Amino acid sequence: MATRRDKFTRGWWFILPGLLLMAAIVGTPLFMGLRYSLHDVFLYSFRNQTFVGLDNYRRAFADPLYINSLRLTGIFTVGCLVISIGLGILIAFLLNARQVKFRAMWMALFLIPFVMTPVVGGIAWRFFIWQQEVGVVNQVLTFFGGPAPYWLLDRETALWATIITNSWHLIPLATLVFYAALTTIPDELHEAGRVDGAGPFQALWYIVLPMLRPHILFVSIIIITSAFREFDMIWALTGGGPGRSTTVLSIFAYNRGIANQDMGMANTIAFTMFIIMAVVAWLYITLYRKTLGDKA
């Protein structure tokens, strides 16, 4: 009995230092954020803290600006998820085709947006893609006789421009995972589909997508957590404007903490983001495990 218990605990002793270090690195700022969210704390007077309990949370949920930022964050996250997953699957499916030559070169090119820092990518898209006079998008539109709108200065288009730009940054990750998953699908399934008369997109719908379901869930949770907390890309593109049309929760927390110097409210907003993402991650992990169980 003692030997069996020793075998069970021996591995835990090896990973204990790493677990303690991770708990300190992750747990300390998390605890401090929770503590500050329960106090009135201001940027330049951290020593003068007044305990207010859940009053900051009540004020946040009663604030229409917070609700608007939460709505924008949801739209931004879902938009990035749909575009990244959809185009990621399509690009991976096309790269996996037998007719494609120089596959390694194409894969390397598609990975460039992912390795580029969000700030650099945002600045590049701001001045070279979305710019009203010399941007690529408006140059193409005017060539075909279309209008040349101010994409990042119009409330109606700014959010969608940021969604497209951030999706450009996330698509390579989805493409890489889906391409690796496609290489594990047996050729016999594709051969059987071709024998039954399935075309490329029928094979994608009836063969590839069912096999990719666990990988879609895996990539989805990564994209959701990344898009939900995105700050750099949006800040480089619009700074949260025009008006508040792209003020997602991360920028709203920054404005409250730095511009308004209300660190208590800023930590409250940040902690609500953590709670929301923890619930979403738990739901996705549960669904992911169920999917793996059904597949097994």
Automatic annotation (TrEMBL):
Record-annotated membrane-spanning stretches: 12-34, 74-95, 107-128, 158-182, 203-228, 266-285
What biological-process GO terms show up in the record? transmembrane transport
Keyword Lipid biosynthesis, does the record have it? Answer: no
The protein's topology relative to the membrane is: Multi-pass membrane protein
- PROSITE patterns, per the entry: ABC_TM1
- Location of this chain's protein in the cell: Cell membrane
Domain ABC transmembrane type-1 residue range list: 70-284
Which CDD domains does the entry link to?
TM_PBP2
> GO cellular-component terms in the record?
plasma membrane
**InterPro entries in the cross-refs:** MetI-like, MetI-like_sf
Q: Which UniProt keywords apply?
A: Cell membrane, Membrane, Transmembrane, Transmembrane helix, Transport
- What would be one Pfam family of this protein? BPD_transp_1
Similarity-based family: Belongs to the binding-protein-dependent transport system permease family.
Recorded protein name is: Carbohydrate ABC transporter membrane protein 1 (CUT1 family)
Q: Tell me what organism the protein belongs to.
A: Roseinatronobacter monicus
